[in-house]
Amino acid sequence: MPKGSKKKKEKVADFSKAKLKLGKGRQLPSNVVDTSFKARSIALPTQSITIEKDITLPTTRKKQSFDDLLSLMKHYNANTRKDAVLSLRELFQLHPEIVESSMTTLLGACVRLIGDEDAGVRKTLLSFLSWLLPLVPKEDLIPHVPLLILFATSAQTNIFPEIRIDAVRFLDLFLQLVPETVVSGWMEENSGHGRRVLEGYLGILSAGTKYGGTEGAAQATSTASVVLSAQSKLVILKSLSTFLTHAVSRLLQSPSNVASDPTAVPLPTWFFAPSFLSARSFAAYERLFQTGSADVRPQLNVDNLQDDFICMPDFVTGASTVEWSLNDLSDLSLAHTESLTHPSNNTTPLIHLARTLYSTLLASYLDCAPVVFSPSANPPEAELNLLTVTARIMRTLYGSVLQNKASMNLAEEEILCDELKTLLGYMTGYFPFRPARREIKVEHAFQDLNVIYCELTALLVLVSSRRQLGDISRKARLQTSRTSASSSHVKHEGKLTLQAGLVRTYVTSLLLGEDNSGAHISRPLTPPTYVALLPTIWALLSQPKENHTSAQGGALPSTVLSAVLNHAIGTTSSSSVKALTVEFVARILLLETESDYCGPFDVHKTGEQEKIQEWILHLPRTLWEMGTHNLAASETIMRSLLRLLQRGSIAIKHEEIIGLLSRLTPFFMVTHPVRGRFPGPFTKIPASLPRIRRLAVDLVITILSVSPRSEREEREKLMNAVASAVSGTLEEDYWQQLVRVTGLS
Which residues form the Pre-rRNA-processing protein Ipi1 N-terminal domain (predicted)? Predict the structure, then answer.
């Protein structure tokens, strides 16, 4: 064995190359730095037990303080930044007392993440601000809004489309919380934040290439030039619609139209304005149902009472300290003259914006209409909502401009009307809009589209009627600018007549509680929907007779009025729409008492006297049913009856007065065959609201003064009921003085 092993080694050695070591090898330079190290421990100063930490400092469950989280929001890692935002919410939930003191520093760090390149960070930040900002008092939040809007508008112009879309979502949040600050200065060149926000919207839509020019035709591109999905377009247009709604409401808001109750839906009256000869008379008509701002009024001065009027004018009671007398009512129509609509408003930016967005809105509608109105299946949610938002923007822009005849010249009005006619022309082929299958959300959206179509059509009808009523200066300009386009005008008028007929049929069936197939609708109209229909109803009622042709295939104005009255009578006393129906019907009945009214609608010629009588006589029952559940609606009912009686409306004749005598008695005192006599709803009206209590007394005095003496029994029942109801209250002296002055004792 040893011998064989030795031979193998020798054989290997023959084929091995010996490695010769020549020299010392490569030497390190003299200035080399030795980077090697040896460590026996790791030092973590922040976790050292030798450092005393403030145990009272608010921290998260991970022992992270507010300053720690702010530093982590600047971390290079996106997940770390996102976790820092989530931890901030945890910190404020555990320690809400530090929110107010941390706002400036916190928002200064948060705004830098609005344009963060990571979608998860932006989504987390939006969720965090949506939770935090509503908790902050508005007056504390407003100083920080400029900084928030600055970074949001900067993100609107980011090169990445996802960041631009998310910036719009942040603006949506700010519009919900502080809309007046976001839209401020939107129509000024270099003032306020609104201008930058609006330009950001138009930039994303590629619709602002020429916006901002003061002369020449507005030019715009459609959204087709920008690669945006339907969902992205929806986010942008929905936010733009909200922005325009707030901007227009601030621009066109009149102090006389501000409701005393912020939650109430006010009844619009602008569409009545063209039917009056002067702004003065319309201003007086507009104030007929306004409520006084003071609940406490002075004592009745018997020496100031006159026999010309028979009740105290509660509806003009204000915060003044002077005493009001009955003859003050005679000067009501001459007081506090206002503009016809809002002539001082500068709507030029709205006109330019409407023309700028015209092609964008048209392209958006044409893209979605075939899918949304497919007869075979219900539309996708994104396309349906996109079409609805597009229609709302049309209503906001064209409605706010065309309803104000003093806001534009004839050429601008013609251009806007032509654009609106084009938009409605594409919609008419599908109207009335019906879903393929019954689904609650889709039905609501389609009803909104139907109502918006009716509103836009009514605008064109009212503009046409306004011209026919005779604005002399407009007629003069029209004669000088008339061209060979008269045949085109006649063609447009024929289309408008057809559209008005379709709208008339739809509105009548909607008020009667039927859909287009004749089936009954289980859900009633909401206050916003009813208010949105009022301009359409008035446009249909005020159309001249020559416009009602058989080609329309719709109902005549008398049928529309009948549907309005049936709906007003059928609406229950507990409905939130009841007060609106009462005021609207009362207003159209009071038109014939206005000397300066010049509209074509004439209640005498409607042939609906029996239905009007039924509406009048159902009001006392509604008043009794409401009791004290809805005092604002009760006040509207009492004021409506009072105004109709005072102005001698033909709606209240001998039969109605006798009916009111007997029907109003239970409101003050109920006589039951078994339970006997017990107080009515009047006695439950709080003493802190003397305005409403005295308004009821005024109504009774007025009815007694105009009722025939032959109805002695009913008169005595009502007087005894009122005397018992006011006994021992502040209204007792008021009642006795009125009875004595008017000779009813």
Answer: 139-244
